Amino acid sequence: SQQGEEDPQALSIQEGENATMNCSYKTSINNLQWYRQNSGRGLVHLILIRSNEREKHSGRLRVTLDTSKKSSSLLITASRAADTASYFCATPRSMNRDDKIIFGKGTRLHILP
Amino acid sequence: DTGVSQDPRHKITKRGQNVTFRCDPISEHNRLYWYRQTLGQGPEFLTYFQNEAQLEKSRLLSDRFSAERPKGSFSTLEIQRTEQGDSAMYLCASSSYTGELFFGEGSRLTVL
User: Fold this and answer.
1) CA–CA separation, A21 vs B97, rounded Å?
2) Any CB–CB contact under 8 A between A104 and chain B?
3) Facing residues of A57 across strands?
4) Which among A40, A42, A48 has CB closest to B103?
């Protein structure tokens, strides 16, 4: 079953611009994660945000979490060609069960030179 | 390198053959996951282990799929009597109590 759903499905922007991706989920959770996947490779963990946090930063990444709206956003500032990848949000199946991690279908980001 | 490793990286097989994939997790991680991913989709949960115990198996998995994690270390995923619909990337990940998943590079299966 799909817990998180990313929007948009695909995004193309010019190098140097900011990229914003959104994730909506269905059930209450205690944390949400974002991952990146380069074509044909495994996924790389980017950031984990807990339900008692509203915003978290890591380098050029900024993640927000709105538990009332059951949504999260990932902002990549000053994009680079190397940011071209698919980005996935991932959530536990429920608030009380954080063992099974479920992924959305992802946003495919393409940075144009 | 002490990351998650998967073997083989690529496997091409004929329909009806059996295949086995191996995953070596990060040594101190007690949870190990298997996911399947097809082109343009997100990873789909298959099964996971807490130490050597297989705690859940997705309904996506038919009886042709079996996974083991003897002694809570490496894990194997076997697919018997492969079908063309089994063609996918099989991803392994491990985690500790913090919850972040560390993925291997995946094993790509092509069934002819």
Assistant:
1) 27
2) yes
3) A62
4) A42
Residue A34 in contact with partner chain B when CB distance is under 8 A = no
pLDDT in tens, A21-56: 999 999 888 899 999 999 988 999 999 999 999 999
Q: Kindly report the nearest CA distance between residue B43 and chain A, in angstroms.
A: 6
Minimal Cα–Cα distance from B29 to chain A, Å? Answer: 13
In this structure, the number of other CB atoms found within 10 A of the CB of residue A14 comes to: 9
Question: Confidence band (pLDDT; 50, 70, 90) for B61?
Answer: confident
**What pairing do the DSSP bridges indicate for beta strands B44-50 and A4-7?**
unpaired
Q: Which of A45, A48, A92 sits opposite B102 (nearest CB)?
A: A45
CB contact under 8 Å between B101 and A101, yes or no, is yes
CB contact under 8 A, A42 and B42: no
Strand order in the sheet with A55-58: A4-7, A19-25, A71-76, A61-66, A55-58
Looking at every residue in chain A, the average pLDDT score rounds to 92
List, as one string, the DSSP characters of B15-78.
TT--EEEEEE--TT--EEEEEEE-TTSPPEEEEEEETTEEEEE-TT--TTEEEE-GGGS-EEEE
Name the band, by pLDDT with cuts 50, 70 and 90, for residue B41. Answer: very high
